[in-house]
Amino acid sequence: MENISAFPLLSLGADIIDDFKKYKKTIIDYTKNNKPTDNEDSSKLKHYHGEDLSVLNDISFRDLKDILLEKSTYYYKDVMGYKEDLYISDSWINVCEKGGYQSDHYHANCVVSGTLFVNLGKDFSPLVFKNPRTTNYPLCSHIRSQSDKETLYNLDYMSVKNFEEGHILLWPSYIVHGYKDNKFDQRTSLSFNLNIKSSGYLYHYGVKR
Ligand SMILES: [Fe+2]
Is 140 a residue whose pLDDT tops 70? Predict the structure, then answer.
């Protein structure tokens, strides 16, 4: 029995941006000077996508974009063990007022997603990740097993706490996530998706842009 092992289900990565204050100011300034779009579900959650649906393409975020790409690539290649080069396909800023929420969702057309925590108060709602093996989508089990013991492998969801401004969270894009009942005004984060530039695996896939 000692030879039995299990795979971690939620392959979350975490990192920190050095000297974050200057990046925070740039992000907050952007939200003051640009018009947001409404979230489909929560009227207290707004998004800033930028003109070409990737706010990090704005010239003011040039250094930050390079840092996020570098850290995401490390997570994808060195930690997870894949070999393709990545690019940031889309990115946006989220500002959530007190009482707002982010409905459960996952990100399509990408392999890695991430969030940079920008402006957090004591009562901000942490991101909650659903276990793909025990929740309804994208994968689900047809038989519901019972358990008396909570482990990394049978939990339904994981709430990511102890995050601070300047911290980055990275995860495989298919994992369902969201948060409820935010209690901190101006909860601000910058989210981003990364896709592979090309793949030679079985059938060629590539992006030209
Ligand atoms: Fe998301």
Answer: no
